[in-house]
Write a structure and sequence with these properties.
Blueprint (H helix, E strand, L loop, with lengths): L12 E10 L5 E7 L16 E10 L10 E4 L12 E4 L5 E4 L12 E8 L6 E2 L11 E4 L7 E9 L11 E4 L13 E5 L4 E4 L10 E10 L5 E8 L4 E4 L8 E9 L9
Antiparallel strand pairs: 1-2, 1-3, 3-4, 5-6, 6-9, 7-8, 7-10, 10-11, 12-13, 13-16, 14-15, 14-17
Length: 266
């Protein structure tokens, strides 16, 4: 803001006092020590898209003058504030659950969010989302992550003015790989006099890709014996061609990954 120095009336001006009010509120001093030589002042503690009114008065050795005329202004909209409470926590499916509070929009509605991530300690960030997250969302699940890895995340909101600064950094860790889950649903698909075809649902690999399956069988009243078979990790069906005619068998199968073999399912 600017003003012209008033007549000092016989005693040199020693400074100025400036007041401001928001909307229809009350005036408060925002500076009581403006230099006597000043005729401009910049108020930098404002809120976007808000109406302010100002008045100023000079002071000399006799005392303060009457308040000046008033000057009013409405600030423009701005980018949203940067978030400061982003959190990250690993979930049971080796994804990362992110949550945050919507920041101040600063005059224009928030239109979406962008999320970036990197492996902890890496130099380069990458976008975790290829399109903005819906404006109504304050959470996101990041999937397709690597087991045993710590990730850093940042988020920023956008409105029609601009994108905000990136938020605080949240860190979460995906658990290290483990043994595969048990195959719980093996079933006989078909059988003949000398073959038994089995099928099952792929179990969770616990963060390490399945490399194969181990199969065992037991005759009624007998003991478990391994069925020599090279079953790939991608399989969900296998035909035992070594079955004996007229024999009843029970089968169990377990998945194998680079960590170890899982438990045999029941």
């Amino acid at each position: 803001m600017t003003w012209s120095a008033p007549a000092a009336n016989g005693s040199a001006i020693t400074g100025y006092t400036l007041q401001r009010k928001t909307g229809s509120g009350s005036y408060t001093d925002i500076s009581a020590s403006i230099s006597e030589s000043a005729t401009t002042y910049s108020d930098t503690s404002l809120t976007p898209r808000t109406s302010y009114t100002y008045q100023i008065r000079a002071v000399n050795g006799v005392g303060p003058a009457a308040w000046s005329n008033t000057a009013s202004v409405q600030t423009e909209s701005a980018a949203p504030d940067a978030g400061d409470d982003l959190s990250a926590s690993a979930n049971a499916t080796r994804g990362m659950d992110l949550a945050w509070t919507a920041p101040a929009a600063n005059g224009q509605p928030i239109t979406g969010y962008a999320i970036q991530r990197r492996i902890e300690g890496s130099a380069a960030w990458e976008l975790a989302t290829t399109t903005p997250i819906m404006v109504t969302s304050t959470s996101y699940v990041d999937s397709g992550l690597t087991a045993g890895t710590r990730y850093e995340y940042q988020i920023r909101a956008s409105n029609s003015v601009a994108a905000a600064a990136w938020s605080n950094t949240a860190v979460g860790e995906i658990a290290p790989p483990g043994t595969p889950e048990a195959v719980t649903d093996p079933a006989v698909a078909t059988s003949t006099a000398s073959t038994v075809s089995l099928m099952w649902t792929t179990p969770d690999d616990s963060g390490s890709p399945l490399t194969g399956y181990e199969l065992r069988r037991m005759e009624t009243g007998g003991r478990w014996e391994e069925v020599p078979a090279a079953i790939p990790g991608s399989a969900t069906m296998y035909t035992d061609t070594t079955a004996l005619p007229g024999t009843n068998y029970m089968y169990q199968i377990r998945a194998v990954n680079a960590v170890s073999a899982g438990a045999f399912g029941q």
